[in-house]
Amino acid sequence: MIDQKDFFRKLEGNFGENKPCVAYSKPGENIVKALLQLDNENYQVQDLSESGFVFAPFDPENDSYLIPAEKSERLEFDIQLEEDGAIPSDEENIDSVDFEYMEEDQKRHENLVQKGIDEVKEGNFKKVVLSRSEQVEVLDPDPIRIFKKLLKKYPNAMVYLWFHPQTGFWFGATPETLLRVERTKFNTMALAGTQLYKGETDVEWESKEVEEQLFVTDYILESLENLEGVENIKTSRPYSAKAGNLLHICTDIFGYLKDPENLKDLIETIHPTPAVCGLPRQEALDFILENEDHSREFYSGYLGELNLKTEQKRNSNQRNQENQQFASISKQTELFVNLRCMKLKDGNARIYVGGGITKDSNAADEWMETVNKSQTMKAVLVK
Ligand SMILES: C=C(O[C@H]1C=CC=C(C(=O)O)[C@@H]1O)C(=O)O
């Protein structure tokens, strides 16, 4: 552990030298971690047996970047947010930020959504997730300051700052777990449906949302059941999960891997999830790539720790020194879907937002949903 001033100084030093780095805090953890790559080589993921931090794009055909564990320095500090004011207090953040939209932006998105609804009604697919991106001028484009604000505002999200000479700066505060693996046990989630959070998580959901989320759960279960290396799959009951100013319906899905060294098949089966692509997957993916007027790049891709050796707390009851050491190191994979995210370039942020379209969707409501989702990033861009 180092103190947070040194942590941020080192992080800034790394991207100042154009070397890849990532700083992040996982949901509910009071620890901020970083991997600072020691050189400025471009490492890529080949078969997901690598160890490090992965940053993967939406389109599985494109390259996934890796900061390899063995080529980087690892840092961490405990968040003591209130202590020295290094992380700004919540009062500086306002909850809803008004931005002006061009009528054309709204029309363009609504037309895209309508096209998606029509295709669903024609039976070409059951669900498609359609997105747009929006450029916002940032008054204070200091990456560290933006990251600190995200940490303060979203303690229950996976909050990150990613820098790579090939991708530039990306930030996010995502609510969606793609995959967590501990020894042979894994979990993923089926996430769908959105409503504004109004101080209450015990809320009613409309049947449109309930049905949409059930599609997602069923689709993931079916894909997992067809996968050779996976067994003993179980689900939680659906519940409302808070994500910033929003609520979603979530079902946790658990299972066991026959060979925990082989994550490739599992990750290729679940990414891109129906929360960001649609179902059936290939038909939805083709429609997205053909019809969205922007490239998603890393939005709705995934990111996180891949086979990262992590030290666990030692069990002081254990007498045998060798066993103790054996028990203290474990491999950790914890990947998140890159939602509620933005790219920072030349003093501008590009915010990416989307929503799931089914036969019962309404284009104007879907536009509003993307406006609401964009607040997650906008709230940290205001002074
Ligand atoms: C695609 C996004 O959100 C997904 C995650 C949760 C709920 C969603 C929805 O209600 O449409 C989306 O599937 C996004 O934030 O850009």
TrEMBL record:
SUPFAM superfamilies: ADC synthase (SSF56322). PANTHER family: ISOCHORISMATE SYNTHASE ENTC (PTHR42839:SF2). It holds the Pfam family Chorismate_bind. Coiled coil: none annotated. This is Isochorismate synthase. Residues 106-309, 329-373 form the Chorismate-utilising enzyme C-terminal domain. It comes from the Bacteria. InterPro entries: ADC_synthase (IPR005801), Chorismate_C (IPR015890).
